[in-house]
Amino acid sequence: MFEHLSHDDLQVYWWVIISLLGAVLVFLMFVQGGQSLLWTLTKNNEERSLVINSLGRKWELTFTTLVTFGGAFFASFPLFYSTSLSGAYWVWMLLLFSFTVQAVSFEFRSKTGNVLGKTVYDIFLATNGFIAPLVIGVVVGTFFSGSQFHIDDLNHSIWMHPARGLEAFLDITNLLLGGTVLLLSRQLGAMYVINSVDNTAIEERARRQVKREALPFLLLATFSLARICTTSGVACDSKGVFSLESNKYLVNLTEMPLVMILLLAGVGSLVASICMIVFKRNDKAIWVGGAGTISLVLALFFVAGLNDTAFYPSTTDIQSSLTIHNSSSSKYTLATMGYVSLLVPLVAAYIWIVWRKMNREKISSSEIDSDKHTY
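RESULT FIELD:
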């Protein structure tokens, strides 16, 4: 089946897969968002343990999706992976370090012989809650703002900035997206706690939290989208020559109406999820917000990489910019991996079944006391 597709079709197919994994990853960052709210939603150790154990049921999904996203990117578009990972070294190390701290904190927080104490690990979890979404947003921002690198005729990449990726935090587009992802994760985290924790006091604080940050989140998201739509992008012609095009991403939206619909549906769903909390006190808002998040992030990835657009522009040598065509694996590799990608729906179905089983009833203090495995 896949071997009969053209190389171009396979490249588009794998960009769709990468985009979907990235969108799911951003949604699952509600775990980090909930961690960043530990001291906002809870007032004592018992309440904090309740929220942490609720989030602890899902943290491995986020970590696994991150690893899968990175692995799929490496296999399908290795030139981007080698350029970014080896060049923007400190950004990726910061992200991986924060996730390592999270994993250690969940596993050792309640272990016998914990000499650091639960509070120290709670601080580690909160730190991961702030750093990971911010860094993810900044990294996605470089898909639009670009990075300083050069690629020679032998596909050897040379990073041109001594900060090794940390310079990305100086770009306004990257910071806007980083802040947007951070506030989005906190909104989704509060919605998840409302949906999963059986504690009236925590639920009320979570509702107030959604109301408190709803307007800042919507404003920052609006500024981010406006910034992207008014930013010049790098276009690639049929001969593989790159040029700067004004309002390239807005042009992409107008030339790909389905992507425009996807983006508007995502924005509408996120607004609807906030309204469900603010006006209807509905505890199912996490699902509407999650669907909106996936739809919106999918649209952003499509705008960044499709329609002859460089998804990783070079700001120092425009002809070194990367597209899904000049950075991908061979046709044979993409076709072979295509059969592996058919397992994605099965994995998604498994995750859904396990999720529903674990969240059939809201978690309570009595359940934690009777559970042999607690975080």
